[in-house]
Design brief:
By secondary structure, this protein is an alpha+beta fold. It has 12 helices and 18 strands. A hairpin with a 2-residue loop joins strand 12 and strand 13. The chain binds adenosine-5'-triphosphate and magnesium ion (MG).
Length: 386
């Protein structure tokens, strides 16, 4: 039985465990909040220290890129960590991420790194409004971001960011990445796996919708070849540069027919949850297959599927389960405003069927908690019937 230790004990480790059991994998999770190794589903079962977890594991991986560097070094030194600590650190630091994109000649938004006020004024000179400022470290779900739409806000935003940099308790100095706002037509992402033999399997790109900076809906439909190819090329370049093993997700802005990278995630990704029922092999299983040196599973889209995030709610009307092709995945987390609590997957045999089912979901679910769903279903109906 191969033993896998996951760094991070959230929903992604939980879903890896659910996908790993049929493969006879023994999955444990390191909870960085308590420094204990725990059961990925029954988190209250403590299984020992990180050191014990490392010794006990055959393979170590991560569900989370914002890990303390000493933890990453310790795991890297064991020779068991996949992807490497380097890849994980790049995913957790927007400065390193930008360096990687530049060195691989991958298109991304014009940007400038800011550590002090001089850098800030230089950025205002080099970039045009609107500008988005993002914390270099520890940013996720739209946290640690400021948007500058008019010069009148500049000084206020700077004092907030200056305070933010000063207050940082990170092991590497905190900074801000200023980025040109991209007038994108839509946001898409590619999720794919690479194993140690260099074999690659990518899922079709998905279209992603955000509400207040947080992913709310991902949509997997048949994709145009040229666009898929473009995303695939970026995936190949980045994974080769990093000698990457595991699932890597890449978020893009689509402008016309071109893709610009927004950011990468060195792990299974929220925009890949649809693969649990829209593909033969889900991203969690493919990640485990990749890091455990097994053949990669089929990543084709077998039926159009959407994923709807459950944000800040700990229940939904059970009536949604009466819609064929709907399933719920709860994460067993304590309710908190805006928190990712679970997700709903919904599939149809074709785009029209999927749009109809999303419309039915939109009617049953609370419009306050799922503001975009009805509009989303209507838009999809127009798109697939055109
Ligand atoms: P997540 O963890 O959800 O991926 P994050 O905190 O890592 O989010 P980003 O993905 O960088 O942050 O930004 C969140 C969202 O803000 C993006 O999905 C996009 O909608 C918007 N956004 C970020 N950068 C830009 C940009 N340069 N131009 C336009 N919109 C942007
Ligand atoms: Mg993002």
């Amino acid at each position: 039985m191969t033993k896998v230790l996951v760094l991070g004990a959230g929903q992604l480790a939980r879903m890896m465990d659910l996908a790993g059991s049929p493969l006879n994998l023994d999955i444990t999770a390191f909870d960085p909040r308590t420094n204990n190794v725990v059961h990925p589903i029954a988190n209250e079962y403590t299984l020992g220290s990180l050191e014990q977890g490392i010794n006990n594991a055959d393979v170590i991986t991560a569900e989370f890129e914002h890990l303390a560097h000493d933890v990453l070094e310790q795991c890297q030194a064991s020779g068991k960590l996949l992807p490497s600590s380097k890849a994980i650190k790049i995913g957790g630091d927007r400065r390193l991420e930008k360096d990687l994109l530049e060195s691989c000649h991958v298109a991304n938004a014009k940007h400038k790194i800011i550590a002090n006020y001089d850098d800030f004024t230089a950025a205002l000179g080099e970039l045009s409004l609107p500008i988005i400022f993002k914390s270099a470290l520890e940013g996720y779900d739209g946290k640690g971001q400021w948007r500058l739409k008019s010069m009148a806000q500049a000084e206020t935003i700077w004092s907030e960011m200056e305070e933010f940099i000063k207050q940082a308790k990170t092991s590497v100095p905190q900074a801000i990445v200023a980025e040109q706002m991209v007038p994108f037509d839509r946001e898409v992402s590619i999720v794919g796996a690479r194993n140690s033999k260099g074999e690659v399997a990518v899922y079709p790109i998905t279209e992603n919708h955000h509400t207040d900076g947080v992913l709310s809906v991902s949509l997997a439909l048949p994709v145009e070849d040229a666009l898929q190819q473009q995303a695939f090329e970026v995936f190949s370049k980045l994974t080769q540069a990093l000698d990457y093993v595991g699932i890597l997700a890449i978020e893009f802005f689509q402008v016309g027919d071109s893709l610009l990278v927004n950011e990468i995630a060195p792990r299974v990704h929220n925009s890949g949850h649809w693969t649990q029922q829209g593909a033969d092999t889900c991203q969690f299983e493919n990640h485990l297959r990749a890091i455990c040196n097994m053949p990669l599973g089929n990543t084709e889209l077998i039926r159009p599927t959407a994923m709807v995030n459950i944000l800040g709610e700990d229940s939904v009307p059970e009536a949604i389960l009466a819609i064929a092709g709907v399933s719920i995945h709860w994460y067993g987390k304590e309710k908190r405003a805006g928190r990712k609590m679970g997700h709903i997957n919904v599939s149809g045999n074709n785009g029209i069927e999927l749009a109809t089912k999303l419309g039915q979901l939109g009617e049953i679910l609370d419009t306050g908690a799922y503001p975009d769903l009805a509009e989303f279903a209507a838009k999809l109906t127009r798109k697939v019937s055109a």
